[in-house]
């Protein structure tokens, strides 16, 4: 097991979560940058973390006042670690953990009519289905206010997807964070 990742803000600031071997957590500087940009939008939000790994980003959202966070992770080891971290921090009542493929789970949640205010997706760097991912996330976002935050390598180019507007790209070292908004009436 790797050292813990520190929660950088909110009610659990300074606490650490456990990160299992083989899982690449979102870097602390990237996580802080994302949450600094989101600011008060996190408060009372419905938050979805796709490719959740250890759950570090979703747990940060809970610490900063998200009403509920859904975690989706394919690795059984990652799912167990997310559940352990949530239990250790007393966050279980506001969290839902799903063991499964992010694209399949996203499609299922959209069919159920689920909507989220904020979605954070950090697929593996070798991931090649960005258009499918953006379409799935678009269908899960609240119209107009919903934001998608996509973490990729800085060299990754993602084409446009109907119904999503790219708001901003931020490069931090080798990482690029792209913010998207769902456009109303475009589906």
Kindly report the oligomeric state of this protein: single chain
Helix content: 25-40%
Mean pLDDT: 91
Poorly predicted spans: none
Percent of sequence in beta strands: 25-35%
> What's the CATH class, please?
Alpha Beta
Q: What is the CA-CA span between the terminal residues? A: 44 Å
CATH architecture: 3-Layer(aba) Sandwich
Order of helices and strands: EEHEHEHEHEHEEE
Biggest sheet character = 7 strands, mixed
State the helix count: 5
Derived structural class: alpha/beta
Lateral strand order in the biggest sheet: 5-4-3-6-7-9-8
CATH superfamily: Vaccinia Virus protein VP39
CATH-derived topology: Rossmann fold
DSSP summary, beta strand count: 9
Provide the number of structural domains: 1
What is the alpha-carbon Rg in Å? Answer: 15 Å
Shape annotation: globular
Any overview of this molecule?
This protein has 187 residues and is α/β, with parallel strands linked by helices. It has one domain (2-182): 3-Layer(aba) Sandwich (Rossmann fold). The protein is 28% helix and 28% strand. It has five helices and nine strands; from the N terminus they run E-E-H-E-H-E-H-E-H-E-H-E-E-E. The protein has helices at 28-38, 56-63, 76-89, 102-111, 130-138, and strands spanning 2-6, 16-19, 46-50, 68-73, 95-99, 118-121, 147-153, 164-172, 175-182. The protein has a seven-stranded mixed β-sheet with strand order 5-4-3-6-7-9-8, with helices on both faces. A two-stranded antiparallel sheet has the order 1-2.
């Amino acid at each position: 097991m790797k050292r813990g990742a520190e929660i950088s803000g909110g009610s659990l600031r300074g606490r650490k979560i456990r990160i299992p071997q083989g899982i690449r957590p979102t870097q602390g500087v990237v996580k802080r940058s994302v949450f600094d940009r989101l600011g008060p939008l996190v408060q009372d939000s419905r938050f979805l973390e796709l490719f959740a790994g250890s759950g570090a980003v979703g747990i940060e959202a809970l610490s900063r006042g998200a009403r509920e966070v859904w975690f989706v992770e394919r690795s059984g080891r990652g799912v167990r670690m997310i559940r352990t971290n949530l239990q250790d921090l007393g966050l279980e009542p506001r969290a839902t953990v799903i063991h499964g493929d992010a694209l399949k789970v996203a499609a299922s949640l959209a069919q159920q009519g689920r909507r989220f205010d904020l979605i954070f997706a950090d697929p593996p760097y070798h991931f090649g289905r960005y258009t499918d991912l953006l379409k799935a996330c678009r269908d899960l976002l609240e119209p107009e206010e919903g934001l998608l935050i996509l973490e990729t390598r800085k060299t990754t180019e993602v084409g446009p997807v109907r119904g999503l507007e790219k708001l901003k790209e931020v490069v931090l070292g080798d990482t690029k964070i792209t913010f998207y908004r769902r456009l109303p009436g475009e589906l």
